Task: inverse folding
């Protein structure tokens, strides 16, 4: 055990865990990358990009469009009509998320050609030559070339060499390392028909790239085919829309890029006036909005519109499909069934608004440094013996939390993706290993203390004992205590209205917050007696100003009861039941008592005994007599100078022969400083003085005045002044004996 708690091992073992964690992060296997990407997905779920009305519209060949205008594939004449109608609505650009790789089988020219092949006379061939039979593909190409709107077509790259290559209509300028080395090379391509690509203003790749878990999070700006750069559809749309001719690709090694001799990848791409930050593979991170209905316009609405559609005026349109049967669905961080065409649209939106996510090339290094910092700090604080476990824990969790907070701030305020979770988890692993070793070396001694006192002491006091067991003296001892008894008034009446389950629930609702109040002020719970709480202060550990802690607890319990009654009233109203209002009485007394383990060898409790305890219990019983919630003895009253205290009476409680002065506490120094309370205190003192001097008329006058001031102060003391008014009336009818000393003899507990 001593070896496990040795200082060297407390440093070495966490250091080994930290070393392994750093090595794993440097290796960065796919499993760890997926974990990191899902963290970033959750960031987007918590704070997604808000969709804004952008000049980008998806013209959706949706299910309804298919029902109205025929199933896919459509004749190219239908698509030509769609292009013409979009142009008539004033769009600036028309892009196709569709590949036209094969001729339209419904073209009249193609059908006639097939017939000609079967005709041996040559008459049909002559007919084709003379009539100029319609070629649907040519019609679409001619429409694309003739409309004022620019057009962009698409192609697909494959790993199987097809012998074909798409044309390139854009130029490329590169700075830094050759970007081709950072891109996946494709061997083959599925291009459009030549006449379609010739008519288009731009041509871009439609390839979708998913991460290992099948989610589209990054959209490439370029693809590579036979050692040549090709733009993606979204990149080409940006170029054509701006009338630009060339892409500028900036990679590691370019001016202003510190790569320390390493080819770390593509950094950014400039398209016209727009600069897009990319990852090392030239991909733009998708800043997802999730589904946005305003992003799309059903194609059937374009066909059937009788008036111009304002949404299309000057817009960039992308023709694509959300129809499930056409299988162009992608999973994005915020949408498991996103139409593939909307991914292109989102990249364009990000470009127009400059709303990019960025995972800079220094992110990996920063995360490794964060891990080293977190782990190193945790090992350091646990290596220092003068730092207690709790502060060490709070500090460790604090620096981990700071890392998470910094990452969240980087995302929300600067759109930077920095992973705090892996460094945080590994930091916690280092912390756990270090704290476990420290725990093993000390827990045996602390276990005995926690077992003995855990049921009735505040956690803070238990920790103090556990940190310094020498403060604990088992057995009985005489020491000054402040005792508190709290009881529910009219509990029998309440219990008659409730069944056993409801009554138990109510008692727990009452005891839990009251116990928390006592324990938060360093009090020790002695026992529960049904609806009654017994507690004391200044044992087993010293509690400076224990009388003040007891009175402050009583005042806090009084305030908490108001909130509890409000909660009960609202709940009763919701259930359409009569509400139950709880009233309490609290008695406090300060003095010497015997405190220690009391019981038998088989079972014992840590408890307080003696006359001081009994008097506190009797004072709680007087709350009902005087109509107040708190009754304290003179010894407790002396513990809280400057508090708002009123004298109640001079009484002899049951079982005692010596009279004592009793008081009620209405509040702390703030209330005592209120001029209204000063006036109430003066009138109350004058009433009691006149009563004891048998000046009944003066006593009644001061009672009325005090009642009025109490009401103005918001204190409910009517029962108290009713009591004195009744005594005065009684003594007027039957005066007290000549030796009467003003003492009230209580016959109730």
Result:
């Amino acid at each position: 055990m001593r070896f496990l708690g040795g200082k060297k091992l407390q440093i070495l073992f966490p250091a080994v865990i930290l070393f392994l964690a750093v090595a794993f992060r440097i290796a960065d296997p796919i499993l760890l990358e997926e974990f990191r990407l899902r963290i970033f997905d959750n960031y987007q779920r918590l704070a997604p990009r808000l969709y804004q009305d952008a000049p980008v519209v998806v013209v959706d060949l949706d299910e309804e469009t298919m029902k109205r205008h025929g199933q896919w594939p459509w004749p190219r004449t239908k698509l030509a009509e769609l292009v013409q109608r979009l142009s008539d609505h004033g769009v600036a650009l028309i892009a196709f998320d569709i590949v036209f790789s094969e001729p339209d089988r419904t073209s009249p020219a193609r059908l006639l050609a097939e017939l000609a092949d079967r005709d041996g006379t040559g008459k049909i061939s002559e007919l084709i030559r003379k009539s100029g039979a319609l070629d649907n593909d040519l019609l679409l190409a001619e429409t694309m070339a003739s409309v004022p709107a620019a057009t962009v077509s698409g192609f697909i790259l494959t790993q199987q060499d097809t012998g074909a290559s798409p044309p390139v209509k854009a130029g490329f300028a590169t700075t830094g390392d050759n970007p081709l080395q950072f891109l996946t090379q494709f061997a083959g391509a599925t291009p459009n028909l030549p006449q379609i690509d010739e008519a288009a203003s731009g041509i871009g790749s439609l390839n979708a790239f998913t991460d290992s878990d099948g989610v589209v999070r990054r959209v490439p700006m370029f693809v590579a085919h036979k050692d040549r750069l090709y733009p993606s559809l979204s990149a080409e749309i940006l170029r054509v829309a701006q009338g630009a001719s060339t892409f500028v690709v900036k990679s590691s090694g370019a001016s202003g890029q510190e790569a320390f001799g390493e080819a770390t990848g593509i950094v950014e791409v400039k398209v016209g006036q727009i600069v897009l930050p990319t990852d090392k593979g030239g991909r733009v991170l998708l800043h997802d909005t999730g589904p946005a209905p305003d992003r799309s316009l059903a194609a059937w609405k374009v066909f059937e519109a009788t008036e111009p559609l304002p949404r299309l005026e000057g817009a960039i349109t992308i023709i694509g499909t959300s129809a499930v049967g056409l299988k162009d669905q992608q999973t994005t961080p915020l949408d498991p069934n996103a139409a593939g065409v909307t991914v292109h649209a989102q990249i364009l939106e990000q470009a127009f608004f400059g709303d990019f996510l960025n995972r800079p090339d220094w992110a990996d290094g920063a995360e490794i440094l964060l891990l080293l910092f977190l782990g190193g700090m945790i090992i350091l604080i646990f290596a220092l013996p003068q730092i207690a476990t709790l502060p060490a824990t709070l500090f460790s969790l604090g620096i981990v939390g700071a890392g998470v907070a910094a990452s969240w701030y980087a995302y929300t305020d600067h759109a930077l993706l920095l992973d705090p979770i892996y460094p945080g988890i590994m930091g916690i692993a280092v912390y756990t290993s270090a704290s476990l070793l420290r725990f093993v070396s000390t827990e045996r001694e602390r276990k005995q203390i926690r077992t003995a006192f855990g049921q009735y002491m505040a956690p803070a006091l238990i920790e103090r004992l556990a940190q310094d067991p020498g403060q604990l003296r088992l057995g009985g001892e005489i020491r000054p205590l402040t005792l508190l008894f709290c009881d529910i008034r009219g509990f029998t009446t309440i219990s008659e209205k409730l069944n056993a389950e409801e009554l138990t629930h109510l008692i727990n609702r009452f005891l839990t917050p009251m116990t928390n109040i006592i324990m938060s002020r360093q009090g020790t719970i002695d026992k529960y007696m049904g609806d009654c709480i017994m507690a004391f202060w200044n044992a087993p550990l010293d509690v400076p100003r224990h009388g003040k802690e007891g009175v402050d607890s009583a005042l806090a319990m009084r305030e908490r009861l108001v909130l509890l009654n409000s909660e009960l009233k609202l709940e009763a109203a919701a259930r359409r039941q009569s509400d139950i209002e709880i009233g309490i009485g609290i008695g406090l007394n300060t003095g010497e008592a015997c405190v220690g383990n009391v019981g038998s060898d088989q079972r014992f409790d840590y408890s307080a005994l003696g006359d001081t305890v009994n008097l506190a219990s009797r004072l709680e019983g007087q709350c009902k007599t005087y109509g107040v919630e708190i009754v304290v003895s003179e010894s407790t009253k002396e513990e809280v100078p400057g508090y708002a205290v009123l004298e109640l009476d001079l009484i002899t409680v049951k079982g005692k022969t010596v009279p004592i002065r009793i008081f009620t506490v209405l509040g702390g120094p703030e209330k005592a400083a209120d001029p209204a309370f000063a006036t109430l205190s003066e009138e109350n003192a004058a009433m009691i003085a006149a009563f004891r001097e048998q000046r009944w008329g003066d006593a009644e006058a001061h009672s009325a005045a005090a009642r009025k001031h109490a009401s103005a102060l918001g204190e409910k003391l009517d029962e108290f002044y009713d009591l004195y008014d009744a005594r005065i009336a009684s003594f007027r009818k039957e005066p007290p004996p000549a030796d009467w000393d003003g003492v009230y003899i209580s016959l109730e507990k």
Summary: Residues 1-5, 128-133 have pLDDT under 50 and may be disordered. The two ends are 56 Å apart (CA to CA). DSSP finds 24 helices and 27 strands in the chain.
